[in-house]
UniProtKB/TrEMBL annotation, chain B:
It is found in: Cell membrane. Pfam families: BPD_transp_2 (PF02653). The lineage of its organism: Bacteria, Pseudomonadati, Pseudomonadota, Alphaproteobacteria, Hyphomicrobiales. It comes from Tianweitania sediminis. This is ABC transporter permease. GO terms for cellular component: plasma membrane. It is a multi-pass membrane protein.
Length: 522, 311
């Protein structure tokens, strides 16, 4: 069996499928990749780690034919081989799940999977179903082939993309933050699948911001920092290191400092326990392909962080939107500090102190082409003091924007930079700055650390703890169980549009929440 | 002599509606494909006038209407190739190039025609019609609807061919992806530039055909500026139809009917000021825009040149 041979070979003898040899890629004003050497071997899961902007995706862009290196060479099976185009990459057996969604929103899932066939062929949608089932089932992924992509949640879309990459029978599978929107189970299944694939002799490049995943699934870890490769940990060392040692080593490579500050710290709660945000029997009828909400009731007290766990796509987004006033409800009531919010629109709810941080930061959270400064005040457009009688007061806006930028540590070249050009973590900071401004009483965070690097993740989590510490009520929706366990007082679990249980955080809470998530009793 | 309900009027109106609708239909179907693929083809008016002129020359010198259609389509494709080079491959602004092509070709064809024919406007013989057996015998409607040049039936058949392409073929998927999310098409291994180029060339061919029909069958001669906004109406139709070929057909018939009102009224001897009747098509455009235009959802990447790997 060739698979057996591959795995039993000593690591350094494993066959190199792709070799990067001193690859450099420049963009105006920045060196995204600086003389990077990298060997991707058959039979290995090669993890790429690095902060936001370290150059991981740029590297992948060159491997998948989207970009050409400015210097250096790419070798395939030991032979120099410029990868001219995405179709060339595909024909070389390189399949990629890109960080940014690469599905056509107006087409169905099946049509998206069929995309790429020769134009004179008929799309074989029938055959597809069987093959998709074969691939998706062991992964625990349930795909509705007839759903239009724009109706799917981002997590479901990510699942579709993973299945698509697997459909192609690649020799090298690249996953660029493909787990960012998956559930803990989904991630574990994907990890198991990666292991199976490399045992068959494939190579996998796996990019993640979660060190736990890197340690668990990786055979080899390479760390990028500011476009340079600053370290590589081979299979032998990886196996011999204790988990904590490994995390320390990687963190110090990535950030030049030690971990340990990602630990659990649940903020103290003020003694006063009045319920600030109360939701009773909230109901939203299900849509065509979206889940509804059924009899949702909960309360969040002052200074309390209530987590909402659950597999992605079980109504979390609908809940957040219904609370924020962005989605019509079909029953139930929401009160904030004793005032009923029923029937109020987004603006009124915001005014009364209910704030919502969307998970779709660029799509609905900000206007990408607007400057950072305007994005801070997007929800106050036309209102004094920033606008007076319809006229924009740039000085007022800029002074306040400068304060917020400093206060929330937003790293932006200038206030007039379009917000879309910032990195994910900084866009998130702009959103946080905006939503926490004056008069916030209850804040809903929807996947607040999705796609952020370790430093930004920790900063965001600390910010959420601070918010609760100031006596606000926090609803924290996340698919990252560790995140919820590290900061929530209580964790409610959503499944198919219902709250199936609420667990007080503490010893053993993780397992109990996990059991609820997969449909068992706590 | 009759009124608006007389048989003469009705027959003239229907026949005229179809004759006027065909160029709009061809242009609309062509534009629809470009837009689907993400290219706003404003140059279509120029492609049409080029098709009208070349189509007329082809038919005039060869005596064959079919050769006229061939030269018309070829001229449209030639202009489209220039547009594809500038806008799709080089990524220049589609609106600017489209307007430039239209203005340039209107002038060029007028000039060439003047050199060639001076102030005379030679006419072609009447186009040969192919009556459809049995159907053509129906009183009033038969002669109006089923006694046309073969190309008319082909144009209507093209509507259904387009529906099939968009709904059932890989090409349809590729076109839609090119217009909605070109990067997704690119990473699926299909060349976006080629897909869009093909769509633009198709538009050129259809527009050229429409122009040739307009000159050779509709008018029987070429006069400078003969298309008179037909290409632009095609753009309106494509926008309103939101990707549906059948809607282009419906819209073309409505506009065609409005355009033929004047002639039909004259034929039937009805006395309405022509100025009033000539306003009808424009009122129709506005009415349709008000009714359907608001909901017009256009491809997300329409008008945006695709550059691989750009952020
Ligand atoms: N097409 C482009 N044009 C200009 N600059 C670019 C382009 N692509 C990437 N960059 C820049 O190159 C740098 C590296 O970006 P890259 O996307 O590779 O980072 P990353 O490691 O994938 O980060 P993240 O974890 O946030 O995804 C960033 O500073 C980015 O702004
Ligand atoms: Mg990236």
């Amino acid at each position: 069996m060739p698979g057996m041979q591959t795995t039993t070979k000593p690591p350094e003898m494993r066959q190199a499928i792709v070799t990067l040899d001193g690859v450099t890629k420049r963009f105006p004003g920045i060196i995204a990749n600086d003389r990077v050497d990298l060997v991707i071997r058959a039979g290995e899961v090669h993890v790429l780690l690095g902060e936001n902007g370290a150059g991981k995706s740029t590297l992948i862009g060159m491997l998948s034919g989207l970009q050409q290196p400015d210097e250096g060479r790419i070798l395939i099976d030991g032979k120099a081989m410029p990868i001219r185009s995405p179709s060339h990459a595909l024909s070389l057996g390189i399949g990629t799940v890109f960080q940014h969604n690469m599905l056509v929103p107006s087409l169905t899932v099946a049509e998206n999977l069929a995309l790429g066939g020769k134009w004179w062929q008929k799309p074989r949608l029938g055959e597809l179903a069987a093959r998709v089932d074969e691939i998706a089932r062991p992964l625990g992924i349930n795909i509705n082939l007839d759903a239009v992509v724009s109706d799917l949640s981002l997590g479901e879309q990510q699942q579709v993309e993973i299945v698509r990459a697997l459909l192609r029978n690649s020799r090298l599978l690249i996953l660029d933050e493909a787990t960012s929107m998956l559930t803990p189970q989904g991630i574990a299944e994907l990890g198991a699948l990666m292991r199976r694939l490399v045992e068959r002799g494939l190579a996998v490049v796996f990019i993640t911001h979660k060190l736990g995943e890197a340690a668990e699934f990786g055979d080899r870890v390479s760390v990028l920092k500011l476009g340079r490769k600053v370290g590589e940990i081979g299979p032998d060392r990886l196996r011999s290191l204790e988990h904590d040692e490994l995390v320390d080593e990687i963190v110090s490579k990535m950030f030049g400092r030690n971990a340990g500050d990602g630990a659990i710290s649940i903020p103290d709660r003020p003694a006063n326990d009045e319920a600030l945000l109360a939701v009773r029997d909230l109901r939203v009828l299900p849509g065509k392909d979206t889940s509804g909400l059924e009899a949702i009731s909960f309360m969040v007290g002052r200074g309390e962080i209530l987590g909402v766990a659950g597999i992605d796509g079980n109504g979390q987004k609908q809940l957040a939107e219904a609370l924020a006033g962005q989605r019509r409800t079909d029953g139930g009531s929401v009160t904030l500090a004793g005032r009923s919010l029923d029937g109020l629109d987004v603006g009124k709810r915001r005014e009364l102190g209910l704030r919502y941080l969307t998970d779709d930061r660029l799509g609905e959270g900000t206007v990408g082409t607007f400057p950072v400064s305007i994005n801070y005040f997007l929800k106050q457009i036309g209102e004094p003091p920033f606008w007076r009688s319809g006229i924009e007061h740039s000085r007022e806006i800029n002074t306040h924007a400068r304060d917020l930028t400093r206060q929330f540590d937003v790293r932006t070249p200038s206030l007039s930079t379009p917000v879309g050009r910032l990195s994910g973590g900084n866009i998130q900071k702009v959103l946080i700055a905006r939503e926490l401004a004056e008069g916030a009483r209850a804040v809903i965070f929807n996947k607040p650390t999705y796609g952020l690097d370790l430093a930004n993740t920790q900063a965001t989590r600390q910010r959420i703890r601070d918010v609760a510490g100031q006596g606000l009520a926090v609803l924290l929706i996340s698919t990252d169980l560790e995140e919820l366990l590290s900061m929530c007082h209580r964790i409610a679990v959503m499944s198919q549009g219902r709250l199936v249980g609420t667990i007080a955080n503490g010893a053993g809470a993780g397992e109990r929440v996990g059991r609820l998530m997969i449909g068992l009793a706590a | 002599m009759g009124g608006f309900l007389s048989e003469t009027f009705l027959a003239a109106l229907l026949f005229g509606a179809i004759t006027a609708a065909i160029p709009l239909l061809l242009a609309g179907l062509g534009e629809q494909m470009s837009e689907k693929a993400g290219v706003l083809n404003i140059g279509i008016e120029g492609m049409m006038i080029a098709g009208a002129y070349a189509g007329f020359l082809g038919a005039y010198y060869s005596g064959s209407f079919w050769l006229g259609f061939a030269t018309g389509a070829a001229a449209g494709i030639l202009v489209a190739a220039l547009m594809a080079l500038l806008c799709v491959r080089l990524g220049l602004n589609q609106i600017v190039i489209g307007i430039a092509l239209t203005l340039g070709l209107e002038g060029l064809t007028a000039l060439l025609h003047h050199f060639q024919f001076s102030r005379s406007y030679p006419r072609l013989p009447a186009a040969q019609v192919t009556p459809i057996p049995l159907l053509a015998e129906i009183p009033v409607f038969g002669p109006a609807l089923f006694r046309h040049h073969l190309i008319v039936y082909l144009a209507v058949a093209a509507v259904f061919a387009m529906i099939w392409v968009y709904r059932r073929t890989q090409l349809g998927l590729n076109l839609q992806a090119a217009g909605d999310k070109p990067a997704a098409l690119d990473v699926a291994g299909i060349d976006v530039v080629r897909t869009r180029t093909a769509a633009v060339l198709f538009t050129g061919g259809m527009a050229g055909l429409g122009g040739a029909y307009l000159a050779n069958v509709g008018a029987g001669l070429f006069i400078p500026f003969i298309t008179n906004g037909a290409g632009f109406l095609g753009i309106v139709l494509a926008m309103l139809a939101r990707g549906r070929p059948l809607w282009v057909l419906a819209g073309a018939l409505i506009f065609g009917g409005c355009l033929s009102l004047t002639t039909a009224a004259q034929v039937a001897g009805i006395n309405v000021p022509t100025d009033v009747i000539q306003m009808v098509p424009f009122l129709a455009v506005m009415a349709m825009l008000v009714l359907f235009g608001r909901r017009a959802s256009l491809p997300a990447a329409l008008g945006i040149p695709y550059e691989r790997g750009a952020r």
